[in-house]
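2024-03-11 09:14:02 DEBUG pipeline.ingest accepted 1 chain
2024-03-11 09:14:02 DEBUG pipeline.ingest length=333
2024-03-11 09:14:03 DEBUG pipeline.predict start
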Amino acid sequence: MNGEVQYISSMGELVRKDNTLQFRNNEKHRNLPVEIIKEIYCLNEITVNSKLLDFLARKGIILHFFNYYGHYSGTFYPKDKYRSGKLLIKQVDKFQNNRLDIAKTIVRGIGINIYEVLYHYYKHGKSGVKETVDWIRKEFYTNVEKADNIKVLLAVEGELWLKFYAAFKYFLPEDFIMSKRVKRKPDNPINALISFGNSLLYAKTVAVIYETHLDQRISFLHEPTETRFSLSLDISEIFKPVIVFRTIFDLVNNRKIQVEKHFDQKMKYCLLNEEGREIFIRAFEGRLESTFQHPTLKRKTSYRNAIRLDCYKLEKYIMDEQEFIPFSLKAGY
């Protein structure tokens, strides 16, 4: 796994020890390589103090927190390194005057990537997905263009995701077929996988945007709110089919994740157990680090870097009016 990213899945305490980091619990003390770490993911109850947070801030390390159910809780990161008043003003201007155009571009990008994911299964004999593939090609893009406000556009996006979920029954085992999307609390194995994967991707996107001049609070598809970084929602939506769902489909169809081994199922919710989380994280990080031939750069790059490149493309659109074209799985193969 990438040494720049550390995951902590056990309960314990994260402390500064001399000039390094140490994770402690009743079983062991583990030193973390502070000089190369960029992000730490706390997937269980982790105790921290202000001395540690000050140390992390000086080292430029981002700390993500997740709750018991695997949902993203929040991020501690050092004060913004790349504040730009000029870009902030222009980002607000784009929100006020070009929001719908940018939002449509994002939704089209989501549709393109879902289409490519499903078309892969269609090419390999899963003919049941043809109805959804044809709908995307023949109706979805037209519906996006017709949307005259954000509310209508979000309804179009919502229909896209519902049709995507409904297609799972054609290529996933019966144990992982989705009856409906349940987020909080996930009620079955497939919802547990989606919720955990989406939370990880959202946190990754928060960290990537932190390294740019973009303001996390000013989004285009999702409503800006005081309780979350809504621009991270915009960007991460584009990559969910590529990173989260392809990871899930690989793990499930190759029986690397199994219902009877890797989930804790209670009366009203279902969660990955510790072994299941570790398997998912390894696959998720592997997906982020896998490479493809970038059509513009003319060289191989990782999906992790593709998220960063989309943020830079959005910056260039805001500052220089360069066309914003989100990552396309079709172009990225």
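2024-03-11 09:14:41 DEBUG pipeline.report Residues 85-123 form the longest helix (39 residues).
2024-03-11 09:14:41 DEBUG pipeline.predict end
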